[in-house]
Specification:
Blueprint lengths: L12 H7 L1 H14 L6 H14 L3 E5 L2 H11 L7 E4 L5 H9 L3 E4 L11 H9 L6 E4 L11 H11 L2 E5 L7 E2 L2 E2 L6 E5 L13 E5 L2 H10 L4 E3 L2 E2 L10 H31 L14 E2 L5 E4 L3 H10 L25 H9 E4 L7 H14 L1
Parallel strand pairs: 2-3, 2-4, 4-5, 5-8
Antiparallel strand pairs: 1-9, 6-7, 6-12, 8-9, 10-11, 13-14
The structure holds pyridoxal-5'-phosphate.
The site of pyridoxal-5'-phosphate has 15 residues, from helix 4 and helix 5.
Amino acid sequence: MTDVARRLSSADPKASYLAAKAGIDAAIARVLDSGTYIHGRELAAFEAEFAAWLGAGGCAGVANGTDALELALRALGVGAGDRVATVANTVSATVAAIVACGAEPVFVEIEPDTMLMSPEALEATLQADGAGRITAIVPVHLYGQACDLPAIVAAARAHGAKVLEDCAQAHGAGVGGRKAGTWGDLAAFSFYPTKNLGALGDGGAVVGGDATALERVRLLRQYGWRTRYVSDEHGRNSRLDELQAAILRARLPHLAAENAYRGQLATRYLEQLAGAPVRLPVVAAGGTHVWHQFVVRTPRRDAVRAALEVQAVLCGVLYPVPLHRQPAYAQRISLTHTEQACAEVLSLPLHPGLTMADVDRVAAAVRDVM
Ligand SMILES: *Cc1c(COP(=O)(O)O)cnc(C)c1O
């Protein structure tokens, strides 16, 4: 009989739950007992704790990351007729939020090494925007690494555009010791179960120092009510419930250690894969990477992925098709670096449920199939 190797995948939300089970179970019991299931103490406490953890001015919980992006854009005044600059190598959610506001996405090219928004390309895009229709910029801190925020924020300010950071993959990432989510006018987080800080269901938050805009998010997330049953403006229902807020409170104290452990796993990968015929991830100078994904690149991506699967190593591809090539958001533009990245990226398993030996096994498998 042959040994069946444990399947290693790029995320394991159950392992994350089990690692914090006692605290999470107690938090769930506390909420069930409390009799308040929406907009109560747990949400208020989580908002305060998460804002403090980030060093942000404030936080407003919402139903998911996509809503966080959309409501933040609306709170910043983005609407019909506006254009919003972002990247095309992101999840559909980033662009869905822009379109939901009635705005139009403008895709900016990425840096070939970090695969993050290029500040030079952004400058050029803004310069070409004579009419000043680009009113907001959404940099996406992809894979756990922050964009060049000082340069992006400076370019935005010079153009009079707002900055909304997409932090869905970057809980705890930063630049120069200052966390992602505290640089822009607002930032959007997702607590989808596989994110570095995950709920056991959907969840999201808008974070930032613009108190007026944050207050507006609080109106928009509940029918535009300032006073109960009276809509000041057209809002909707996008609430973070008490159960998810309490679960996130139980997990937040572990986030720094989990991010550090992700860093150790990534360091191990970099050592074990040194000299292997794949392009390894590049960490920008002065940045704190929280390794939401460990992404290698190879032109033979699909074949390598299939060969690894045979060895019970399940890899992810974030993202196979750039937004400007997707039917819903197609644009007749060409973005060479973005298209090449989407064709080559492969996420190796990396999450806090893995051991160093697991990483060694994956690295050996990668060398073997290459
Ligand atoms: C997960 C994710 C989102 C969307 O978050 P949801 O909670 O799934 O709506 C947005 N942007 C990026 C970059 C993401 O990874």
